[in-house]
Amino acid sequence: MVSIPPNDADFGRSPAGLFMEFSSSNHCFRLRDCPDRSTDVAVVGGGMAGVWSAYQLAKAGFRTTMVACGDDERGGLQGASRRAAGAFNLSLVNGEKMEAMLQEIGCGQTHPSVARTLSLHLSSALRELGALMELKPVKIGMALASGNGEQFLEQIRRRFGELGGEMIDGWVTRLAADAGSCRGLQYECREGAGKLRCKAMVLAPGGYAGLFANAVKTHCCGNVLGYYLQCGGIATNLEFLFKHGYGNMEANELTPTEELPGAEIYDARSQRVEWLEQMLFNRQGTNSHLQAVQFWLRNPEAEFYVDLSHRPLYLKLQELNGILENGEKAGHHFEAEKTLALAGVADLFPKKSRMEVFDRISGWIASRRVIDYAMFEELKHGFKPAESLKFRVQPLTYFSMGGMGHLDFSTNLKNVFVTGEAMHDFGANRVGGLPWSLYLSSAYVIREQMGGILGENGDDGGDFEMTSGRSHYDPGLLGKIQQRLHDSQERELTASRAMESIDWFRRTRGDLLRNGGRLDDGVAWLIVAEAIMQCSLCRTESRGFFFRHDFQNSDERLERLFSCAWYDRAADEVAAELLPWDRIEPRLRHNQGENKPELACATAI
Ligand SMILES: Cc1cc2nc3c(=O)[nH]c(=O)nc-3n(C[C@H](O)[C@H](O)[C@H](O)COP(=O)(O)OP(=O)(O)OC[C@H]3O[C@@H](n4cnc5c(N)ncnc54)[C@H](O)[C@@H]3O)c2cc1C
């Protein structure tokens, strides 16, 4: 219920700019209804997974409507895609043993559809993308030449529109779907509340990492995952979130791995952490994320600082190393290039010591040896950094690896598909650059299946009643959930802390529901938060980025077991259990309402 005073007109604008209608029967404002709309496929979410899927569906001739939120009223402009580098990992994709490699990297938790989808579709997806926009080669494969996702989103959205695709700039507040029918969704926009009826849905609303206090600010908090669970959807792997080992605590920003070589790392007693510095110097930074995060998870009070002041020297030395390594190829230019690079290093030092630095390095490289960590350390003694670049670092929660459960992107709700970070995609560990690869490829698999659904029995699932009231975004509540999840799942996860949080999530949700907040984002967040904790509770081990204080080692018996969570609407409780994939699979088949797991079989509560 909105508590703004009535004015002379029947309709007025709420403080948030929404059109409201004064209802004389209950003396309150409700959202004005927008005209009903209908489409074949509704796509929820306007990140790279949503726009690419919508574009592919429109291209195949399906009447497609994308609902995405373009304003910044819910914490800030949303979505991970606009911030991403848009890099595509190709290093694993052409290997024969991709499935085995992905399971190894994902610590036995990689979704079984990933390898198949990538091997079947990634090459052609990149060819298609390459014809639409410029790509550039990078170390792991390819990347958007623009360097971020913004241009990709704009361009694909425009092409979707040119193909006749429709867009609603609105916030989805409810899904009307279950195991037996797909009817549509309810949304709010500046004009009021609306209903979009559809025969099929593709959910691409991003991940749920935003529910954690230390998350990269993409403002994606998993609200659609909450609605999906409310409809009877099954979620898998929710306990796993990828973490970045070197979050800048002051700026709440990632420190890109490629900016770390040459850094000095200090602990709380101002002691240098040389093993880590060496690893970074030798460009093993990507591998060090997991080690760094595990260290912090085991020592939640530990403080670490990164000092980037010596990076200019490091970078000049790398230039020199590059020339030394490619010496033979440079041919007769080699000596000249080497001298120039050496002079470049010496120039960073005070005038009086330049000659000495030049001679010292010349001596080292006389046998074409490259400059290693020990030499770098020695040179640093005479180097005076121009500025101090020291800051405190801690792990940041980057993106979620679990999410809506699916079989080849088809969920257990009838005609409801999922793609993007919203789904269970990867494992317990990082697979850099594979999310975009997978999300591009998954659109083709969804498109193929859509043909079967809309081609033969394209009947819609029937109409549905709009839920009255309006949704509410409460940043205060979000902050409390974020802190709870951070403290009980990230900082010190034990069974008793988890139970304490679950109890709080339930009580808070109960209060919201009793007070008419059925459409509130908070209800959805609290269901997802409980689901994360239930999945975390049933995993009685530590694996990858997931760490439990009361079970600090990995248990090999749990390697190929996946957590599986569902919501019991009548009891308003979430339950979860660990199952092998062949027992999850039957539950994920749609039209299998009778196969839905019983709350009684839950192990967690
Ligand atoms: C800084 C950063 C760099 C990254 N770099 C890479 C990389 O180089 N390569 C790679 O493969 N991966 C990378 N990742 C991961 C990857 O970018 C993300 O997982 C991916 O972009 C997610 O895309 P998405 O479309 O699923 O979700 P998002 O881009 O998060 O979009 C979700 C959309 O859904 C909308 N939405 C949510 N709820 C609702 C609702 N109720 N109603 C209406 N709309 C809603 C949001 O507004 C948003 O537009 C990076 C991630 C980050 C944070």
* Count of discrete domains: 4
Bound heterogens, unique: flavin-adenine dinucleotide
Task: Tell me the name of the CATH class of the largest domain.
Answer: Alpha Beta
Shape: globular
The CATH topology of the largest domain is given as FAD/NAD(P)-binding domain
Mean pLDDT: 87
Describe the structure.
By secondary structure, the chain is an alpha+beta fold. The protein has 4 domains: 32 residues, no CATH class; 395 residues, FAD/NAD(P)-binding domain (3-Layer(bba) Sandwich); 76 residues, no CATH class; 70 residues, no CATH class. It contains 17 helices and 22 strands. Strands 4, 5, 9, 10, 11, 12 and 20 form a 7-stranded mixed β-sheet that branches. The protein has a 5-stranded antiparallel β-sheet with strand order 15-14-18-17-16. The N terminus and C terminus are likely disordered. The chain binds flavin-adenine dinucleotide (FAD).
Structure in a nutshell:
This protein is 37% helix and 20% strand. The protein is α+β, with helices and mostly antiparallel strands and 605 residues long. It has 4 domains: 1-32, no CATH class; 37-240 and 401-463 and 474-601, FAD/NAD(P)-binding domain; 243-309 and 387-395, no CATH class; 311-380, no CATH class.
Give the helices and strands, then pairings.
Blueprint: E1 11-13, E2 19-23, E3 28-31, E4 37-44, H1 48-59, E5 64-68, E6 87-89, H2 98-105, H3 113-132, E7 135-138, E8 141-144, H4 149-162, E9 166-169, E10 171-177, E11 182-189, E12 192-203, H5 223-230, E13 235-236, E14 241-248, E15 253-254, E16 264-267, H6 274-281, H7 285-298, E17 304-307, H8 311-325, H9 327-330, H10 334-346, H11 354-365, H12 373-380, E18 390-400, E19 403-404, E20 416-418, H13 434-455, H14 475-491, H15 495-514, H16 521-538, E21 561-568, E22 573-580, H17 581-588
Parallel strand pairs: 4-5, 4-12, 5-9, 12-20
Antiparallel strand pairs: 1-2, 2-3, 6-8, 7-8, 10-11, 11-12, 13-19, 13-21, 14-15, 14-18, 16-17, 17-18, 21-22
The protein binds flavin-adenine dinucleotide.
